[in-house]
Amino acid sequence: MKISGSPGRWLIILPPLVFLLVFFLIPFAFAFKISFAESAAHVPPFTDVLVFTPDHHLKIAATLANYRYLLTDEVYGVAYLFSLRTAFFATLVCLALGYPMAYAIARAPRATQSVLLLVIMLPFWTSFLLRVYALEGIIRDNGLLNTVLLHLGLIHEPLRIMRTNLAVYLGIIYSYLPFMVLPLFATLEKLDPTLLEAAADLGSTPWRAFRDVTLPLSVPGVIAGSMLVFIPAVGEFVIPSLLGGPNNLMIGRVLWDEFFGNHDWPVAAAVSIAFLLLLVGPIAIYQYYNVRQLEA
Amino acid sequence: MERRGSLFPLSVLCFGIAILYIPILVLIAYSFNASPLVNVWGGFSTGWYAALWHNRQLLDAALLSLEVAVSASTGAVVLGTLAAVALVRFRRFRGRLLLTGMVNAPLVMPEIITGITQLLLFVSMMQLISWPHRGFTTIVISHVTFCTAYVTITVQARLASADRSLEEAAMDLGAGPARAFLEITLPIIAPAIVSSWLLCFTLSLDDLVISSFVSGPGASTLPMVIYSKVKLGVSPDINALASLIVCGVGVLILTAGWLMRRAERRRTLEIQLAAADFAAQ
Asked: Does the distance separating the beta carbons of A283 and B102 come in below 8 Å?
């Protein structure tokens, strides 16, 4: 293309590059800086890390107190591990539900397939917050689930699901199930059916053919779907806040409270930076090597 | 294809779809309940819908959210398409790796971290250059940031699979690169642009976490108002509002999808006809 190599192409590259640089990347630099500040009772509620002294010298007034606080106050470590555990088990359940779903869609006739995909996609397009709220209508003490179970005589008093960790699990599974199904479908659909026929011709039972052919070939979809569920679930705020009990310590909620409840911005900044390094760092490295491998 | 043993996946599929839809259907049913008590059916009523019209707080918030969503998705579509063109068409340039990273990172970044860091940026900018005031502007900027990622990914895929030879043919026939892009490439990637605009619109309309951090006093988006009401307990008017939003967005998405499919089909047909014409000559 003629435009390549001409200065005109910078008109295309620069707007998104500069915008994302200023409003996505540089904010982390500010968060990093403020994580070394002290909390203060003015607007904005933190001290300056870089101070110009009257004789025009730059003085750095940094403190490691916020990070020390993260290490000594065990609430953050507990919350981090609790979030990882919750996200991990919710992802497993999503996988157990989503895999057969994606499999069934991949096996459906073409015309049905697109309708089914639409049915799975539609909730993802509509409101996340409102879906979490809608789930409350099912699982609260006088919600649909308890009403039905009581009427059937299966239970004699309402199950307490709301404000428990079970409610948080249900919320994550319900909200993120479409994210698991779609990438799984994408890999299962591309699977060459002649491979399964070959396995059957060679005497494989359908189950063995599934275990030895389909399952290994669908691993990329399993990884993609699991990441799409696990990553946002770890940092989830809305679900633990609306469905979880007061003792539910998902890290997103702890951060929110630190910020809006305690108004301790420097500690919140330090938590963000630590969380970023512990969660997003490994993922970024994984992705980087993954892309490099694909390109090689 | 082998169909034996597919009863189990099929039943899980039905179960999964039921899980996805029952809460929404129950919510819609509740919204027509005349009784304000959730466990009592007080007869059919559209009273909660009528009550929405008199709730100024909700109407203001809805208006703000719609303005934010339209501005943010339009901004994101422009920036995201530019980024996609840059990444697909320009093989190497300074900052390519940086741009790739910044386009993909928001997709894996927990919202709460994006929210906090952007608030810290806006507060620091306010100190340095007295801009931007927290409110509409900062919410739009934040939404554009995370929406751009979705646009770039969608348009990038479409652009990468687009047939370059059409564009090259146009340029051989004397069109400049800009004109070739506008007349040939843009119509090809148009479906991706439309669908990513819609996705951005719904994502922006739905965002609670990032908006809560970056907005200022007096600027409450609809999700922020809904969240604070829901936090206080069940309120029947929220049922009505939620039903309206879910159905409205659903209809919007289905109509757009249907229109796009029709346009796409007509386009394929035209190309086939033109090819047949050419062959006949």
From this structure: no
Q: Which one, of B52, B211, B94, B249, lies nearest residue A14 by Cα?
A: B94
Q: Tell me if chain A has a CB within 8 Å of the CB of B188.
A: no
The answer to whether A139 and A161 have CB atoms below 8 angstroms apart is yes
Residue A199 lies in a domain: yes
Which of A2, A3, A192 is best to mutate for the B interface (most B CBs within 10 A)?
A3
Give residue A186's pLDDT: 92
Chain A positions touching B83 (Cβ under 8 A) are 16-17, 20
Q: Looking at residue A166, which CATH number applies to its domain?
A: 1.10.3720.10
Inform me whether the C-beta atom of residue B202 falls under 8 Å from chain A C-beta atoms.
yes
CA A223 → CA A228, A235, A288, B244, distances in Å? Answer: 9, 19, 15, 36
Domains and CATH numbers, chain B: 11-45 (no CATH), 56-255 (1.10.3720.10)
The rounded Cα A34 to chain-centroid distance in angstroms is 25
Residues of B in contact with A196 (CB under 8 A): 1-2
| Rounded mean pLDDT for each run of 10 residues along chain B, 281 residues in total | 67 94 92 82 88 90 95 97 92 88 86 93 91 93 95 92 84 86 88 92 94 91 92 82 91 89 85 86 77
Per the structure, the complete domain to which residue A226 belongs is given by: 74-263
List, as ranges, residues 263-282 from A with C-beta within 8 Å of B: 265, 268-269, 272, 275-276, 279-280
A44/B127 CB distance under 8 A? yes
Which of B4, B99, B202 lies nearest to residue A126, judging by beta carbons? B202
CB contact burial B20-46 (16+ within 10 A = b; e otherwise)? bebbbebbbebbbbeeeebeeeeeeee
Q: Work out how many domains chain A is built from and give that number.
A: 1
* Mutation target vs B (from A103, A129, A205; most B CBs, 10 A cutoff): A129
> Looking at the complex, does the CB of residue B249 fall below 8 Å from at least one CB of chain A?
yes
Q: Is A284 within 8 Å of B245 when comparing Cβ atoms?
A: no
Q: Do B230 and A242 touch (CB under 8 A)?
A: yes
Q: Looking at the domain assignment, is residue A144 inside a domain?
A: yes
Average pLDDT of span A99-125: 90
The continuous run of DSSP H or E covering A52 comes out as strand A50-52
Residue A200's Cβ-count burial label (10 Å; 0-12, 13-18, 19+) is middle
| Residue A296, amino acid | A
The token duo for A9 is: 């192409």
Q: Are A102 and A184 in contact (CB under 8 A)?
A: yes
The verdict on A131 touching B (C-beta cutoff 8 Å) is yes
Q: Which alpha helices (H) appear in chain A, and where do they start and end?
A: 10-20, 26-34, 65-72, 74-107, 110-125, 128-139, 144-152, 165-190, 193-201, 206-209, 215-217, 219-234, 238-243, 251-256, 265-275, 281-295
Torsion sign over Cα B167, B168, B173, B177: positive
Residue B9 structure tokens: 């996946």
Q: How far apart are CA A177 and CA A124, in angstroms?
A: 9
